[in-house]
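Q: What structure does this chain adopt?
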Amino acid sequence: MLIKTRSSKLVLFVMLLTLLNSCGETEQPQFTGAPGEIELITLAPGHFHAYLVQKDMYEQVDSTVHVYAPESPEVYQHLEMIENYNTRSEDPTSWNQVVYTGDDYLKRMLSERKGNVVVLAGNNRQKTNYIISSVEAGLNVLSDKPMAINPANFELLVEAFEIAGKNNVLLYDIMTERYEITSILQKELMKLPGIFGTLQKGSPEDPAVIKESVHHFFKYVSGQVLRRPPWFFDVNQQGEGIVDVTTHLVDLIQWSCFPEKIIDYKSDVDMISARRWPTVLNASQFERITGVAPFPDYLDDFIESDTLLRVYANGEMNYAINDVHARVIVKWDYSAPEGAGDTHYSLTKGSNSSLIVEQGEDQDYKPVLYIRPAAHIPMDEFEPVLNDEFRVISEKYPGVGLERLDDSWKVSVPDEYDVGHEAHFASVTRKYLQFLVDGRMPDWEVPNMITKYYITTSALELAREAE
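A:
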């Protein structure tokens, strides 16, 4: 119905990319930045991240977007949200959606080639197959996480990156957390030797880096209650929590602790342990989130006493990169406390101080960054060094300051830097558009994406083996 309105050695792979980047073909950008030269194709949208990419307009992107999807409530929810953006009173968008729904949607997309960038955010069971089909066809791909939800997907993803390199197209995932101001400032502070010192190694019992994320099934997006598709609660389709949200946390560790460094998962990563556990939802909670009752048959293996659904949305992994020990934890609850939302905790230990992000009740559920000097450094001794080096931060980010507390300093951030999670999608998209103009991504991006998905899918395997 038409409506208007695939693994080889990482080292060899990196060598191939370097060779390609050194020859004339990739030196010539495929795009120039001209208005409307990017034509988006949205493939099988099923997650709200698909429409958040279009919450803003981009001069380089044509206003007509072709959508290919199976007939489903999710595609119509996607269209409705885009229309809401088009008709909002403040800064409305002007997207023109041309939609094809049918069982042959993927074949139709590949044969018609109505665009040059495929946007993926939906059911993760087929996502890696969508990716490899797209890059094989010479289409660039901007994909929501996760791009792989199990070890088999990981092997396919490695192949997809190889094909993308050969076909001179860019495959990139949407890492919005790199654009959150406390993540940015935490990374910047790690560059200051007087304040942070050197990154500690830690141990499995006492990691040098800890990142924990708490999410909620029931939430609001763009001012409306988020309607999640029922398959979102099937880990065979969505993926377990240990391979989903953890993608962001693993990415932040690599991005902040080893900036612009290539990480080889075969030699630089040591997976130590992992575990998983379920969040239990009752039938009424499931119906409130999805609008569906009773539970679909494909959830039978996860249902207890006909009324309780066990969703393996929680997980913990312990691993080391270049001998630096890290712990990543993800948790999902039904809904957040009144006035709260998704939360993030981050701890990075340096020889001079620890950098801590907290987002609990004491912080009014907004992320706040703290600088806590190491136990052997008195506060008064640390303060002049802190004030001296912190000028680099305040000059780069005007208005960002320090507030002394009992055992640490709070980094005060003006509201103008707190743009909100939804706005980060436009930031990622603009970064990707610049990659397209450049005709390449930084040398470390692809190998580190591969390493990231090796870590998450290996953690899943370890967690299942541990049971």
